[in-house]
Amino acid sequence: MTSTELAVDATGLVKTFGTNRAVDGVDLAVRAGSIYGVLGPNGAGKTTTISMLATLLRPDGGSARIFGHDVQRDAGIVRQLIGVTGQYASVDDSLSAIENLVLFGRLLGLSGRDAKRIAKNLLDEFSLSDAATRPLKKFSGGMRRRLDLAASLIAQPPLIFLDEPTTGLDPRTRNQMWDTIRRLVANGSTVMLTTQYLDEADQLADRIAVIDTGRVVAEGTADQLKASVGASALQVTLTDAHDTDAAVQTMRDVLGFRGNPAFRGDQISVPMADADRVTDLLVELRSRGIHLAEMSVQKPTLDEVFLSITGHGAEPAADELEGAHA
Amino acid sequence: MSTASLDTASRGPASPGSPSDSVLGRPLTNSVSLADTVSHSLSMAKRGLLKIKRTPEQLIDVTVQPIIFTLMFTYIFGGAISGDIASYLPVIIPGILVQTVITTSVVTGVQLREDMDKGVFDRFRSLPIARIAPLAGALLADTVRYTIATTLTFVMGFIMGWRASGGIGSVVLAGLAVIVCAWAISWIFAFFGVIARTASSVQGISMIILFPLTFLSNAFVPVETMPDWLQGFVHVNPISHLVTAVRELANNGVVGADLVISLIGAAVIVAVFAPLTVRAYMRKA
Fold first, then answer.
1. How much is the average pLDDT of A109-122?
2. What residues in A contact B14, CB-CB < 8 Å?
3. Residues of A in contact with B27 (CB under 8 A)
4. Domain that residue B256 falls in
5. Chain mean pLDDT for chain B
6. A43: buried, middle or exposed (CB in 10 Å: 19+, 13-18, 0-12)?
7. CA-based nearest residue in chain A for residue B128
8. Distance between terminal CA atoms of chain B?
9. A309 and A217 in contact (C-beta within 8 Å)?
């Protein structure tokens, strides 16, 4: 694959804030025309990585190219190829929705009339026409996100960065946002999004990079990633907590999982590649005399994915929090 | 978002998956032309004007201050300094005008700091626009504030009995000179705005510089009454030159050396602080 077929090609990106290496040698390769998910907990370095790729932050080390253009040397060209929708709505609170879009259109070199026309079309498309002239202060979180995304699409950039596009949205609005993202890619755009939700990465992304404390700890398709952590999670609560070690050993024997189980109170949670195996496990537990108080099979949470890959949970330590959202 | 047929569908990138070599029909370039820089700055200035229109309460300082200060200074110091109010007016109106408008330019730096903390500045930085545009636009929009302060000060003077012998044309010219100089000086405060961490610290630093600078000048009292060592400073103080320029223009209709010195000074400030501010702004990014 030559570099021009890659929308994003980053090698060894590093960004430090004081003593904190927020991004610590990240390599990424995003094929043009795909959706690429960057999955990780708060403070993993997702926003910092996106900011460097979008020319908002200068990398302290490594290099990155957008469609073959270096983000530092050719920043002006890169900015013409990307749209950025930030985690914190990057629209102007003091203006109305239409004024925002017209302003960005004018800044992108559109004539006043074209800027207005495209702004109106985008507002229609994102169901914001009724609120076009309303002050943004009265917008809901979902409306802001939609306007923010609309603003990123004015120039029809071939690459769109979405930083946690659905965090804080209700399920219905989240599904709408997913549809919009899929449509963008169907029309030929490349989308790189960050998310804290495994489900979201699974639903949308062609490939996923799992990022933790500034490093890529796993990379692959959703299926590859799930195979490594198990497609579902088995959660059991024992009648007698003294049986815990024996129960975990039984689960290792029958389910063949590696890594560590997660403990939440009395509950033991382990990844499981094949939900069908649970029958074998129950039989084995019975024969070993281990009694269950409760049992459920669920999709793995990000916490379990993280535990399985990194050996620690997704909750960041206080000093690992991202130093800046700039 | 619910609509099935999409405008973007037909506007999507022409060749999926390949790097575009043009965006919106324009070829990719790494630099921004001068014409585009001006156009970007004007767009940003329009944003500033819309903001002022949305929040007219931020104009309180430029409306109330000229009225109160002009009244206060004239009636408190008029008798003591010039013998009577009428003969103090030609002295104080240019002085208070320069002081008021220059002080107003501090707000530019403070508001820039507040503005830059908003998410929308992330978008401005990610757009292929001239880096100077968000700054230049904000500063340009603020000339509206200077114009309001200038007009009100002149009107107050007129109401109190000041008659500019230089004629209306000279008064307008004097007002323009003050606005241009205030705009130039606002680059200094914009620089503080970009490098400072909080808006209140911008206010603090700026007032510490501005308060002595406006009072250690010929704005309010005859320089001859000051001690010699202070006169030395007052004579080189750029504020004094601007005040003298406005007095000569408005009172006598004369374009003097002080006007030239003031405008050259303004140009030098912009030449130094505009690049400094833009560089600091870029580094912050």
1. 93
2. 188
3. none
4. 33-284
5. 87
6. buried
7. A79
8. 32
9. yes
Question: pLDDT tens across B151-165, in order?
Answer: 999 999 999 999 888
For CATH 3.40.50.300, list the domain ranges present in chain A: 3-226
Look up residue B250 and give its DSSP letter.
I
Asked if residue B27 is part of any domain, the answer here is: no
**Residues B81, B84: Cα–Cα separation, whole Å:** 8
- A227 vs A115, which has greater pLDDT? A115
Give the closest of B19, B44, B127 to A158, CB-based.
B19
Judge whether B3 lies within some domain: no
Q: Give the type of residue at B211.
A: F
What is the Cα–Cα distance from B75 to B85, expressed in whole angstroms?
A: 7
CA distances from B130 to A86, A297, B39, B98, B190 (A): 21, 55, 9, 32, 17
The superfamily (CATH) of domain A3-226 is P-loop containing nucleotide triphosphate hydrolases (3.40.50.300)
Cross-chain residue pair A125–B54, CB shorter than 8 Å? no
- For B30, the closest chain A residue by CA position comes to A76
Q: Is the Cβ–Cβ distance between A152 and A74 less than 8 Å?
A: no
Q: Is B27 exposed, middle or buried (0-12, 13-18, 19+ CB in 10 A)?
A: exposed
Q: Please name which of A245, A210, A204 lies closest in space to residue A228, comparing C-alpha atoms.
A: A210
* Digit-coded pLDDT (tens) for B97-155: 999 999 999 988 898 888 888 888 888 888 999 988 999 999 999 999 999 999 999 99
Closest residue of chain A to B50, computed from CA coordinates: A95
Sorting pLDDT into bands at 50, 70 and 90, what band is A304? Answer: low
User: Which amino acid belongs to residue A87?
Assistant: Q
- Give a yes or no: residue B2 inside a domain: no
DSSP A299: P
d(Cα B33, Cα B130) in Å, to the nearest integer? 8
> Is there a contact between B125 and A32 if contact means CB atoms under 8 Å apart?
no
How would you list the strands of the sheet with A292-298, edge to edge?
A: A262-264, A267-272, A232-238, A292-298
The domain tally of chain B equals 1
Q: Is B123 within 8 Å of A91 when comparing Cβ atoms? A: yes
Going by C-alpha positions, the residue among A228, A259, A205, A229 that lies closest to residue A28 is A205
| Domain-embedded: residue B57 | yes
The H or E element that residue A13 is part of is strand A6-17
CB within 8 Å: A76 and B128: yes
A 165-194 near B (Cβ less than 8 A): 176-177, 179-180, 183-184, 187-190
A61: helix, strand or coil: strand
CA–CA distance, B133 with A301 (Å, rounded to integer): 45
Q: How far apart are CA A53 and CA A78, in angstroms?
A: 9
Domain A232-298: give its CATH superfamily: B family DNA polymerase, N domain, alpha/beta motif (3.30.70.2250)
Please report residues of A whose CB lies closer than 8 A to that of B121: 90
Residues with Cβ < 8 Å from A113, sequence gap 6 or more? none
Candidates B39, B126, B279, B281: best to mutate against A (most CBs of A within 10 A) is: B126
Using CA coordinates, name the residue in chain B closest to A118: B7
User: In this structure, is the dihedral angle defined by the CA atoms of residues B119, B120, B123 and B129, taken in order, positive or negative?
Assistant: negative
* Beta-carbon separation of B128 and A84 below 8 A: no
